[in-house]
Structures are given as structure tokens and as C-alpha cells.
Write a structure and sequence with these properties.
CATH superfamily of the largest domain: Aspartate/ornithine carbamoyltransferase
Helix content: 25-40%
Number of strands: 9
Strand order of the largest sheet: 7-6-5-8-9
Order of helices and strands: HEHEHEHEHEHEEHEHHEHH
CATH class of the largest domain: Alpha Beta
CATH architecture of the largest domain: 3-Layer(aba) Sandwich
CATH topology of the largest domain: Rossmann fold
Strand content: 5-15%
Low-confidence stretches: none
Radius of gyration: 19 Å
Length: about 325
């Protein structure tokens, strides 16, 4: 695997290798000194054409924990505002010594185009493209669920362990979510049973081709036992102002699809609550639930560093003699 572009083209073996490598990386993060020298002297660049906090900082932290040098590029305030293309930006950054590119872009397929065009000859890691893919988020979600399922103390999961029979509900703005698409593809590949919960207006037209079931009522869905509930952010920036007709009002959305204390009380004893962030507290999730003991949102963030360390290590070590 030269690039990490999407969960639509990843194999089960590649996914397991990345999750198992992430376990190795996570074990190094329990040490007093968290940095390891395995990629010392190598350089990676983050190319972000769309705003981000968690993903960008997570990738940069992962690279630095591997002792890499990081070139940080943001489209805001750059020559992109003068009309510079993705091709020219990538080639410029690679000319400065970048040996891998981490790309977030507002356009669906942009990292794929960069990887397949031949413009640059370095590994490409997709950090989110439009409404299309977010593979490392799906991997960290799988990593978080796998750890929870196999060990209630959230310790290391067994090597090559799958998610066979694990039940996961993904709730909210499915239509605009690259996380939902990537999660369905990867979690189902690993054996999980996925239920999407959303109003019809927030479901994509091709939902019948997704490997999951659909439920329109959150309360009815909660009659089933889920091992994990993944709440999605309502993406106002991809809608017209005020919801743009996707739902009548914020209060009605919260009443029908928000995870509040009453709904959280219906969950199984060991059900975990997840969210890719940033959270709209009071809309898709209440503050009391987001901060409750069953919420693993901060664990997802920590796990994201380990997963991204694994992705960088595996892609950078393909043609090199590097060992952990």
C-alpha cells in the first residue's frame, strides 16, 4: 500500500496491519519520553486546504513522535489565494524535501487525483476530502471500538482481532459526513454490523448501496443493543444558513436525533459513546452526555495519534529498512 487514500480501497489485511501497528505505537505513548527515533531525518508535509484542529494537530503530533520534521502548509494566507493549483503547491512542497504529503481538501477526490496524477512521487495520506473519505478517522474509530470490545480496561487488543458481531449505530448528518462513509466501509469490512440513524433528508441518495441498515427513529433504534454509538456533527457549513431545509429547526433536530441523558440511559451497561469532533453541544449531543464516563471522545483523540503514527510509519518504511 503506497498511499492511504480511502477505506473504499483498503483491504482487510492492510486494515489489520495498521490497527496492530497502532497498538505498538500506543505502547510507546505510555513511556515517560514518548518520542521514538524510527523516522528521524525524514520529512512530512501537511497540506490543509480546509480548516482543521484535531486532524491537523494529530498528524503533526504523530509525525513529531516519530522524530520526523514537519512542513506545515495552510491554504489560508498562502499563494492558493493567488490562484496557485494543487499540483503546483504539492510540487513546491516536495521540492523543499517533503517525503510524504498529508492532504485535507474541500473537493471530493483531491488526494486521489494527487496520488494518481504522477505530479509527485511520494506517499499521499488523505486527511479528509470533501464529503468523500476520512480513512484515518475510520481507523481510529475501529481502533477505539476494538480496544473496548476486547478489554474493558481499554488495554491492547489481540493481534489480528476483528469486529465480528459488534453492533454500531452512526447517528445524525450522514449526508454531509465523510466520517460516516469511511466508518461504514471499514467497520463492516472488519465484521461489524452498522445501523445508520437519520432523517431521510440527511441520507445520501446511494444509501441503498452501503453495507448497513437504516433506521429513521433514534428511539426505535435504541431498542437494539449497540456496542458503540457514533454521534455525527451537524455540518452547517455544508448546508444553507439555518439548516437549509434539511430539518425544520435546531430544537426539533435535538428532540428527534440528539443524544441526551434520557436516551443515554437506555444504552447497555458497556455501550460507549463516540464523536469525531468538533461537537455541537446541545444539538447532536448534550454536555452532560459528552462529559459522561461512557463517553470516549478524548480516548478517540489519543488513539488518533497512535493510528496516524502507524500510518506514517507503514507508508514511509515500505522501501526502507526501518524497524520499531
Amino acid at each position: 500500500m503506497k498511499n492511504l487514500l480511502g477505506t473504499d480501497i483498503i483491504t482487510r489485511n492492510d486494515a489489520l496491519l495498521m490497527l496492530d501497528t497502532a497498538e505498538e505505537m500506543a505502547s510507546t505513548q505510555d513511556r515517560h519520553i514518548k518520542k521514538i527515533p524510527v523516522l528521524r531525518g525524514h520529512t512530512v508535509a501537511t497540506l490543509f486546504f480546509e480548516d482543521s484542529t484535531r486532524t491537523r494537530l494529530s498528524f503533526e503530533t504523530a509525525a513529531k513522535r516519530l522524530s520526523m520534521d514537519v512542513i506545515s502548509f495552510s491554504a489560508r494566507g498562502s499563494s492558493v489565494s493567488k490562484g496557485e493549483s494543487l499540483k503546483d503547491t504539492a510540487q513546491t512542497i516536495c521540492a523543499m524535501g517533503a517525503e510524504a504529503l498529508i492532504v485535507r481538501h474541500y473537493a471530493d477526490g483531491a488526494p486521489y487525483r494527487l496520488a494518481q496524477s504522477g505530479w509527485v512521487d511520494v506517499p499521499i495520506l488523505n486527511a479528509g476530502d470533501g464529503k468523500h473519505q476520512h480513512p484515518t478517522q475510520a481507523l481510529l474509530d475501529a481502533f477505539t471500538i476494538r480496544r473496548h470490545i476486547h478489554n474493558k480496561e481499554n488495554r491492547r487488543a489481540p493481534k489480528n482481532s476483528l469486529l465480528e458481531g459488534v453492533k454500531v449505530a452512526i447517528v445524525g448528518d450522514i449526508l454531509h459526513s465523510r466520517v460516516a462513509r469511511s466508518d461504514v466501509q471499514l467497520l463492516s469490512l472488519l465484521g461489524a454490523e452498522i445501523t445508520l440513524v437519520a432523517p431521510q433528508t440527511l441520507l445520501p441518495l446511494d444509501i441503498c448501496h452501503w453495507n448497513c441498515s437504516v433506521e429513521y427513529s433514534f428511539d426505535k433504534a435504541l431498542e437494539s443493543h449497540f456496542d458503540a454509538i457514533i454521534m455525527l456533527r451537524v455540518q452547517h457549513e455544508r448546508m444553507n444558513k439555518g439548516g437549509g431545509g434539511f430539518f425544520p429547526s435546531a430544537s426539533e433536530y435535538q428532540n428527534e436525533y440528539g443524544l441526551n441523558s434520557a436516551r443515554a440511559g437506555k444504552l447497555g451497561k458497556h455501550t460507549i459513546i463516540m464523536h469525531p469532533g468538533p461537537m455541537n453541544r446541545g444539538l447532536e449531543i448534550t454536555a452532560s452526555v459528552a462529559d459522561s464516563p461512557r463517553s470516549v471522545v478524548t480516548q478517540q483523540v489519543a488513539n488518533g495519534v497512535s493510528v496516524r503514527m502507524a500510518a506514517l510509519y507503514l507508508l514511509m518504511s515500505q522501501d526502507k529498512d526501518l524497524t520499531l
